[in-house]
Amino acid sequence: MTASTLPDQGPLVSVIVACYNSARFLRPAIESVLQQTYRNLELILVDDCSTDDTVAIIEGYARDDARVRLIRRETRGGRPAVTKNTGLEHVRGRYLCFLDHDDYYHLDKLATQVKLLEANPDCVAAFHEVQLVDEGGAPLNCYLERFVSEAAAHQTLLEPDVYRCDENFFAFQVVHYAAIHTISVMIAVDRVPRDCLYFDTRYQVCDDNDLWVRLGLEGRMIYVDRILSFYRQHGTNITRNQVKVQEDMLIYMTQAFERVQPRMGQADQDALKARIAHYYSDLGWLYRRRRERAKSVGAYLKAWQWSSAGAHLVHAAKACFAPRAS
């Protein structure tokens, strides 16, 4: 029986993959979706003007499996947020997931999350643990190794390894760390406003963090403490650019502060301000190492404005001079 003639086995799930020169790792990513135990899905692969064999690979799978859809951008978007937004324009599913072209799913990912969201209609999304792997797929550490203990005050056990996050989880997420990895999420599309489902194109690396905060403000989430996706570590990962990561994190956190402040207690507000100050301080040092003195001074002054700690003013003064050779 071909994929196009498979009987309906539950609500349709849409999986979006943003692609750009993705030929090296794309086949395992595609196959991890098509081989899911949950079969009623569409795989939307959005090509951002690749110059390698990406399109040919996708076309080959599309010929063999009617669930595969190739969307080709006519102009280069240049960042994942743009490409994923193009995919969102073509989604038909009741549930929505994302997969990076160099990562892959556990074969029970979709079945597990669909079952949980169907059983908990008040929840807007579910996410799970992610295994980091090297280029060849050998396991490294896990993404959320201490999450269950650190988030215990915001979770209720539903069943073994499955937790419901409370209405204040969004604040914990913003204040302490970005707990959600893009490839781990399944969103219940009809449970959130349609204008909530987009990626902010200002970001190179934090567009997903921004979306998860907005989702958290819309309703509760479910956490599955099982490895259901695999995040490949290699030299071309976009997050290797430290300065860009810091810059994006600060845009994300300052905007998140504006969104969540009215629903946060004073302790959480103070903790988030301190975290923003810390990121500005780290950015100041990165600028200083690159001999960008004006930016370095500006970052340290921003750190002082968020925390009022005098040490940041000292660092701002030091930033007027080149750092010592290491």
UniProtKB/TrEMBL annotation:
Under SUPFAM superfamilies, the record lists: Nucleotide-diphospho-sugar transferases (SSF53448)
Gene Ontology MF: a single term: hexosyltransferase activity
Where does the chain cross the membrane?
none
Sequence ranges assigned to domain Glycosyltransferase 2-like in this UniProt record? 14-127
Q: Which residues form a coiled coil?
A: none
The family database entries (Pfam families) matched by this protein are listed as: Glycos_transf_2
Q: Known PANTHER family for this protein?
A: GLYCOSYLTRANSFERASE, UDP-GLCNAC:BETAGAL BETA-1,3-N-ACETYLGLUCOSAMINYLTRANSFERASE-LIKE PROTEIN 1
What is the protein's given name?
Glycosyltransferase 2-like domain-containing protein
